[in-house]
Automatic annotation (TrEMBL):
Keywords: ATP-binding, Carbohydrate metabolism, Kinase, Nucleotide-binding, Transferase. InterPro entries: 4-carb_acid_sugar_kinase_N, 4-carb_acid_sugar_kinase_N_sf, NBD_C, NBD_C_sf. Belongs to the four-carbon acid sugar kinase family. Residues 11-218 form the Four-carbon acid sugar kinase N-terminal domain. The keyword Nucleotide-binding applies. GO terms for molecular function: ATP binding; kinase activity. Coiled coil: none annotated. This is Four-carbon acid sugar kinase family protein. It comes from Silvania confinis.
């Protein structure tokens, strides 16, 4: 893996600055941390990286060569997007072919429609307020005039890759075929959403090629959820009170870890419980202690297992760390909350975090920030096990539901 890659959720390559900003703004509005880069490598902490290649007015071969410079930035991106102009100006054919080569992706979905701005695609023809783009002012653009209204003809000027025109309803079947360029009609935002839905669940995500309309649809799909995944390993009395109070609130699901399962390495059932809770829009609190009295049974458990207190704690923490990592691999809650120093470090280790960037404080004794250098780039909140009041976890839930949704 490239040294400067931070496993970003989204990487967008745009060919001018205003297009780059248009591509990123909807992701930012929906809770993502978005950065627009003028040059690379870019090592900043960001959910979505938008790179301005400034290549719209270049000749096609130069534009393709410039995109090759971004190979390290797109490596391991969960979503790769080529932002193009909704009226097909620039070098879409050359740049799409270049990105397919660089990324190793088999297919590109090309959907230039931007319905909110009156730009639609019907029968593979780019329309501006119902008129073919070649009959509008864009045909005489002083820098990058548009010579064809048919998307396929625009692409064919710069690439020999085969293309086919499909509707959103036909897209799923086309993704099973061998045609590398899939031009998809769209007249509404709902049809753009349908395009994103068609590619979201596949094993291999194609290159997305579109204007701000398709970027907006992707942002709607990736909108930051409002659920909290809380992992609490502390057995302190105040931690148990916090769990109890949170569990009394509607929309909170509790997952109790059986210590015997820790030693049997049985994790699948807990992952299913977590997945079910998050998928239902609930907060999920994972904990290892039933009540404040359980801490007095530690010596008995240690004697049964032939372990010291420290070894028992390390085993439980390591289990919770791996459980958290696997849960985050399949679901993306609004934030992660870890209580107990050993558990917090075990989670960080399981995620291969290189550090922690502090952003502020959610509640008393609850700093929040982000792990550095790992795939999980959502907000992280930490709390020492014995700190806070019985309402601390409730305050965190309030922060997730109210302030993070603003």
């Amino acid at each position: 893996m490239k040294e400067n890659n931070l496993n970003r959720e989204v990487v967008v390559i745009a060919d001018d600055l205003t297009g780059a900003n248009d591509a990123g703004v909807s992701l930012a509005i929906r809770g993502k941390k978005v950065s627009v880069a003028f040059r690379t490598p870019f090592t900043g902490d960001t959910d979505a990286l938008v790179i301005n290649s400034d290549s719209r007015a270049m000749v096609a071969s130069e534009a393709a060569e410039k995109l090759a410079l971004y190979a390290a930035e797109i490596d391991a991106a969960a979503w790769l997007v080529k932002k193009i102009d909704s009226t097909l100006r620039g070098n879409p054919g050359a740049e799409v072919e270049a990105l397919l080569t660089i990324s190793g992706k088999r297919q590109a979905i090309i959907a230039p429609a931007f319905p909110a701005a009156g730009r639609t695609t019907q029968g593979g023809v780019c329309l501006v307020k119902g008129i073919p783009v070649t009959e509008t002012e864009f045909a005489s653009d002083p820098k990058t005039p548009v010579r064809h209204a048919q998307v396929a003809k625009v692409l064919a000027e710069q690439t020999a890759l085969n293309s086919v025109v499909v509707t959103p309803a036909q897209l799923a079947a086309a993704l099973q075929g061998d045609t590398p360029l899939l031009i998809v009609d769209a007249r509404t935002d709902a049809e753009l959403d349908q395009i994103i839905d068609a590619v979201s669940d596949g094993d291999e995500r194609p290159l997305l090629v579109g204007s701000a309309g398709l970027c907006d649809a992707l942002a709607r799909r990736l909108a930051r959820p409002r659920q909290l995944l809380a992992v609490i390993g502390s057995m302190s009395e105040i931690a148990q009170q916090q769990i109890q109070r949170a569990g009394e609130v509607a929309g909170v699901s509790r997952v109790l870890i059986d210590i015997d399962d820790v030693f049997r390495h049985e994790m699948a059932g807990y992952l299913q419980q977590i997945a079910t809770a998050l998928a239902a829009g609930q907060h999920c609190v994972v904990h290892t202690c039933t009540d404040g009295q359980a801490r007095h049974q530690i010596d008995s458990v240690c004697q049964q297992r032939g372990l010291s207190r420290a070894a028992l704690g390390e085993t439980i923490s390591a289990f919770l760390g791996v459980l958290t990592r696997k849960a985050l691999e399949s679901h993306t809650p609004a934030a992660l909350y870890v209580s107990g120093g050993d558990v917090a470090m075990a989670v960080a280790s399981a995620l291969d975090a290189q550090g922690f960037a502090i952003s502020g404080q959610v509640a008393q004794c609850v700093p929040f920030g982000r792990f550095l250098g790992c795939r999980w780039q959502g907000p992280v909140m930490t709390k020492a096990g014995g700190f806070g009041t019985e309402t601390t976890l409730l305050e965190v839930l309030h922060f997730i539901e109210e302030k993070m949704s603003d």
